Amino acid sequence: MAETRKAGRYIVPVAVAGVAAATIGLVPALAASGDPDLPEITAQQLIEKIAASDTQTLSGTFRISTDLGLPLEGLASGLTSGLGGGAGGSGTADPSQKLTELISGSHTLRVAADGPERQKLTLLDGSDEYSLIHNGDDVWAYDSKSKEVFHEKAPADAGPKDAPKAELPGTPKQLADEVLKAAGDTTSITVDGTAKVAGRDAYQLVIKPKQAGSTVESVKIAVDAANGTPLKFTLASVEGGKPVVDAGFTKVDFSKPAASDFTFKAPEGAKVTEGGAEKAAGEKGDPFGGPLPEGLEGVLGGFGPGAGAGKGDVNVIGEGWTAIAKIDTGAPAPKTDEAPKEIQGLLGSFGDKVTGKFGSGTVFKTKIVNALLTDDGKVYVGAVTKDALVNAANAGK
After folding, report:
1. How far apart are CA 137 and CA 340, in angstroms?
2. Is residue 63 over pLDDT 90?
3. pLDDT tens across 110-153, in order?
4. DSSP class per residue in 313-344
């Protein structure tokens, strides 16, 4: 299995569904009271600065908080952990399972990077630590709580094209790249002042949808004024309240970390699980360590074009921030009243019954991604409002 696959499967995705970023604004940054007084810069220039940044070495601490707006505390982590556990079965140290914890709650992480060959991330949870280390051909993971070790090695025929990018999962840089790489004309991008982040002077890049009906209010990226590295990423919902995603450095140092930071030796008595390089051969971008359900790859992979109108195929309605993926499962939706009472309560707590020209169905909602499951088995999903999903279903598209 190529190292690209190994590195990619450990990146926890953030659901900014349907993003097709931006008409570049030309509004210069002006320092507000108490913020750094930096030279004026346009959004175009700031994006070019991000693109030109080539930060190969860093170490520091960052905090990531996610609030999807689910009514049950821990529901997101419970569901994703279940998916990971069912697919991999490699123990608690398997990164494809452990890093799904980042999809809910608040977490503190230590990070270090030394070019494309060496990166380290440590997830702190009280006195327990979970470390993920990439050093050359080896990926190691260690869970101090369970005393379990996970190891995976690149195949001997992995070539230079398979080298992983020097990015750490869930960092502001990785999150910013996901938004900016799909620039288009459905978004405005401006610079809105300056800020201090982790003791560094930064410009504030603000990205907003131009289209009505999106659940995304804005994406704000704090960009290091000296080297162009994103230091903080904030995703806000039109519902208000806490940000859906708020990830930012609290400490950062761009000097070269010590080589010893990336060395690992399994502690005596620890259970070591060797990751099967071949087990994921059929997986396409699945962060949970197992094949995606038929038809969902296009949705989670960024709303790629639909392959047709067959069962399980994904058709994309609209564009940009209000794109909606339609999937025909080919089978009627299961009846809620036939499910166990516990499941009925769970579905009822974050699902709304809706009706329209299309018939009837249930909208399952978070603060960003919403999905309409019709009673006849069609699924409409996107970073759009409930009304937008119902309108799409009514149009019979």
Report:
1. 47
2. yes
3. 999 999 899 999 998 778 899 999 999 999 999 998 999 999 98
4. -EEEES-GGG-EEEEE-SSPPPPGGGS-HHHH
Number of Cβ within a 10 Å radius of residue 349: 11
% of the chain beyond a pLDDT of 90: 40
Whether residue 322 has pLDDT greater than 80: yes
CA distance 314 to 236: 27
Beta bridge partners of residue 372, listed in sequence order: 363, 380
Q: Count of residues for the chain?
A: 397
What are residue 24's DSSP bridge partners?
189
CA distances from 218 to 46, 245, 373, 375 (A): 17, 11, 27, 33
Domains delineated in the chain = 3-274 (2.50.20.10), 297-394 (3.30.310)
Task: Report the DSSP beta bridge partners of residue 272.
Answer: 149
Which range is least confidently modeled, 64-73, 184-193, 337-346?
Answer: 337-346
Side chain identity at residue 386, one-letter code: K
Task: Give the pair of three-digit tokens for residue 153.
Answer: 């090695």
* Gap between the Cα atoms of 42 and 150, Å rounded: 46
Instruction: Give the global pTM.
Output: 0.74
Exposed e or buried b for every residue in 75-95, given b needs 16+ CB within 10 A? bbbeebbebbbebbebbbbbb
> Pairing mode, if any, of strands 216-224 and 230-237?
antiparallel
Please say whether the beta carbons of 139 and 94 come within 8 A: no
E strands, the chain, in order: 23-24, 57-66, 105-114, 118-125, 128-135, 138-143, 148-153, 187-197, 200-209, 216-224, 230-237, 245-253, 271-274, 314-317, 324-328, 351-356, 359-365, 370-374, 378-382
Q: Exposure pattern of 170-201 as b/e (b: 16+ CB <10 Å)?
A: bbbbbbbebbbebbeebbbbbbbebbebbebb
Rg (CA), the chain: 22
Nearby residues of 332 by Cβ (< 8 Å), 6 or more positions away = 375, 376, 377
Start-to-end CA distance of the chain, whole Å, equals 39
